[in-house]
Amino acid sequence: MRVLEQFIQGKAPEAERCEDGIFINDHYIAAIDGVTTKSKQRWDGKKTGKIATEIILSRLATLAKEYDAEQCMSALNDAVVAWYHAQGMYDEAHNNPIERCAASIVVYSACHRQIWFVGDCQALIDGASFTNNKLVDMVSGHARALFILSSLRQGERIEDFLEHDNGRDYIQPLIEGQNYFQNTTGDTGFEYEALDGFFEDMSTIKIVDVPDSAREVVLATDGYLELLPTLKESERALKKTLVEDPLLIMRHKSLKGLQKGNNSFDDRAYIRFSP
Fold first, then answer.
1. Cα separation values, 46 from 49, 112, 255, Å
2. Which letter, b or e, does each residue of 101-128 get, where b requires 16 or more Cβ atoms within 10 Å of its Cβ?
3. Which residues contact 144 (CB under 8 A, 6 or more apart)?
4. What are phi and psi of 6, to 5 degrees?
5. Which label site among 2, 4, 106, 149 has the fewest CB atoms less than 10 Å from its CB?
6. Alpha carbons 159 and 169: distance in angstroms, whole number
7. Helix, strand or coil for residue 156?
8. Is the pTM of this model over 0.85?
C-alpha cells in the first residue's frame, strides 16, 4: 500500500477537539469518526467520541494482519468494553446508550483486499462511491431543515442560526432518542450500528471487495458531504456548499450546520492510497 495523501481537520479551531482519526500501518488503513457526544461526562477533558477514536486507534495497531472483518470489529468492540470496565462504568454504558463511547469506522484490509464499514463512513474505489448512511440521521436532518426553513419564512435570519442553531435544539430529543436504536435488532428501519462496546451483529458489517485492478482507494468520514477522488476536489466541494448553504438545509440536509467561528459543520478525515 502507498499513501498518496491524508488530511484531518476538526470543525472547531482547537485541534484537540477533533474526534476523527486516521490509522495507517502495513496491513490496515482506516478512517474513524468519533460519534458526536451527547454525554456531559469528560475524561481528562475529552468527550466520549474522542475517547472512542483513541481506543480504536490503539487497538488497530495490535491487530493480526490476517484478521477478517468479524475478527477486526469484534476486537475493536472488545477494546471499548475493556475501557468501560477500567473506568468502572460498564453497567452505566450498558443501561444508558447516551453515556457510551462510540465511533463509526471504515477499514481497508490489505490481506483480504476488502473495505469494511461499521457506521456511516464512506469510500471510493477508482471514483466509485460506497456509503453506509443511517435512516435516523436522514429523518432528523429533514426535521431540522423543515424547522429552520419555516423559521426563515417567518422572518428569522440565517445569521441568527449561524450564531446559535435553534434547529439543532429542536431535533435534540430525536438525536438523543436514536441512541436507543444503536446496535439493536428490529424491523423499524431506525436501527443502526456503531462501535460502542455493544456491537454484536457481525452480519451488519458492510463489506466491499477491492478488485485487483483497483488503482486508488479513498476512505473518509462523513465530514465530507461529497467525497471526490482527490483531497483538493473534496475540500473545494465542501467549501462551495458551505458558502451556498451554510446551514445545510437544502441539498444536504444535515443534523448540524456551520457555526460562527468554525471552519466546517463537522470534523473530517480523508486518506487516499494505492492498494
1. 8, 34, 22
2. bbbbbbbbbbebebbbbbbbbbbbbeee
3. 167, 168, 170, 171, 249, 253, 254, 255, 256
4. -150, 155
5. 2
6. 16
7. coil
8. yes
Identity at 210, one-letter amino acid code: V
Q: How far apart are CA 125 and CA 94, in angstroms?
A: 37
CA nearest to 104, candidates 183, 161, 1, 42: 183
CATH code of 2-274, in short, is 3.60.40.10
CA–CA distance, 101 with 98 (Å, rounded to integer): 9
How are the residues of the chain apportioned to helix, strand and coil, as percentages rounded to the nearest 5?
Answer: 35, 20, 40
Give the full edge-to-edge strand order of the sheet including 114-118: 20-24, 28-34, 103-109, 114-118, 206-209
Between CA 128 and CA 228 the distance in angstroms is 9
Rg of the chain on CA atoms, in Å: 18
Name the residue with cell 463509526: 104
pLDDT in tens, the chain (275 residues): 999 999 999 998 887 789 999 999 999 999 999 987 777 778 788 889 999 999 999 999 999 999 999 999 999 999 999 999 999 999 999 999 999 999 999 999 999 999 999 999 999 999 999 999 999 999 999 999 999 999 999 999 999 999 999 999 999 999 999 999 999 999 999 999 999 999 999 999 999 999 999 999 999 999 999 999 999 999 999 999 999 999 999 999 999 999 999 999 999 999 999 99
